[in-house]
């Protein structure tokens, strides 16, 4: 990793649809480029917008808004991702952007990592939507738990409460993550959410020995009024913003943004990573692989699997994944009633 300048962007989406929001994103990228930024991070599912309606309205009344989100969701690849790729290449900037991804008849909370040449390196989906989000998005798989080697260093990403899954964070730490890009919705729950975000990202920076660039979204009072007519519900759509950049020593490198629009910008010195890991390397000299191990399944899950030559399930075998090759069945498998077990384990 080289010394770089990074930005965490806190702006409001265009609640009318993806066309307006992508314009706001591209405008922010241009302004960040003018400041010399080489890595920019945007909030969770920012394009077209986070589904705030699902937090303040009962599911039975959200059908219209849910369908509108489908209409504005992002297909990968598609026109929206091309706009992002073009912006990354134009400004030679690494981008981490949250989208509502549409894949067939399902929506997903998806994070995209673009390299500075415009190539899409990572498309990962939030593995477990939280609370009300489960009425909106499907679940991701483990294929996105990988760090991208980019023009600015090794970049990893998690969304919101995925940071409360220590094994998810370890999966990125084990790949020697240098720049962790965190995304939260913002404009939710109030000050307690902002306080929790601060604790969460500072802890990850300390434990992983990496920089954390965290972006939260923002809603104007006018936008809040369009989401719900209930003033009691409007109150829970305020606060909860903490856009910041944290050093590997857990220290904010610039003034966090807790309200309004803006960019948290800071220079990142890679020597701080070594300084921290000299004392604590959670995947190196401070780990105990002889005691703890973590099994990570990073394969994408298909809806259809090849049929085995013999009824494995009937023999007490739970098929995890594999492929047919001639007359033999290859891949990972698990015998439920025997000692046969094939898998890969990462030391903890």
Describe what this molecule looks like in 3D.
By secondary structure, the protein is an alpha/beta fold. It has helices at residues 18-34, 53-56, 63-72, 79-91, 166-173, 191-208, 221-227, 231-235, 271-279, and strands at residues 4-10, 39-41, 94-103, 106-114, 120-125, 148-150, 153-159, 179-184, 211-216, 244-246, 262-268, 293-295, 317-319, 323-325, 328-330, 333-335, 345-347. The chain is 26% helix and 24% strand. The strands form five sheets. It has a six-stranded mixed sheet with strand order 5-4-3-2-1-11. Strands 6-7-8-9-10 form a five-stranded mixed sheet, covered by helices on one side. A two-stranded antiparallel sheet has the order 12-17. β4 (106-114) and β5 (120-125) form a beta hairpin. The longest helix is centred in the middle third of the chain and has 18 residues, at 191-208. The two termini are 24 Å apart.
Give a quick summary of the entry.
The chain is α/β, with parallel strands linked by helices and 348 residues long. It is 26% helix and 24% strand. It is globular and about 55 Å long.
């Amino acid at each position: 990793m080289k010394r770089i300048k990074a930005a965490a962007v806190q702006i409001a989406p265009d609640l009318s649809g993806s066309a307006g929001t992508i314009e706001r994103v591209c405008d922010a990228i241009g302004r960040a480029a003018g400041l010399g930024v080489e890595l920019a991070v945007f909030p969770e599912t920012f394009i077209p917008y986070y589904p705030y309606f699902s937090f303040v309205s009962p599911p039975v009344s959200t059908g219209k808004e849910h369908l509108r989100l489908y209409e504005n969701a992002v297909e990968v690849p598609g026109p929206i991702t091309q706009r992002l790729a073009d912006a990354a290449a134009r400004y030679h900037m690494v981008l981490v952007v949250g989208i509502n991804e549409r894949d067939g008849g399902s929506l997903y909370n998806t994070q995209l990592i673009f390299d500075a040449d415009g190539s899409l390196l990572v498309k990962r989906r939030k593995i477990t939507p939280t609370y009300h989000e489960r009425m909106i998005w499907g679940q991701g798989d483990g294929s996105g738990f990988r760090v991208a080697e980019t023009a600015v260093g090794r970049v990893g990403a998690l969304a919101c409460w995925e940071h409360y899954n220590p094994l998810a964070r370890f999966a990125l730490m084990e790949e020697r993550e240098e720049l962790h890009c965190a995304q939260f919705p913002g404009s939710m729950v109030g000050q307690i959410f902002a306080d929790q975000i601060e604790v969460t990202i500072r802890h990850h920076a300390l434990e992983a020995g990496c920089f954390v660039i965290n972006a939260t979204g923002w809603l104007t009072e006018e936008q809040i009024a369009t989401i719900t007519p209930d003033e009691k519900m409007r109150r829970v759509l305020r606060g909860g913003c903490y856009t910041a950049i944290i050093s590997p020593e857990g220290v904010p490198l610039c003034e966090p943004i807790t309200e309004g629009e803006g960019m948290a910008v800071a220079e990142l010195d890679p020597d701080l990573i070594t300084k921290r890991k000299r004392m604590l390397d959670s995947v190196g000299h401070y780990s105990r692989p002889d005691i703890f191990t973590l099994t990570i399944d990073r394969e994408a899950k298909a809806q259809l699997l090849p049929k085995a030559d013999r009824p494995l399930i009937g023999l007490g075998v739970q098929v995890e994944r594999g492929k047919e090759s001639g007359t033999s069945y290859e891949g990972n498998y698990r015998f439920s009633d025997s000692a046969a077990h094939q898998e890969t384990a990462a030391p903890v």
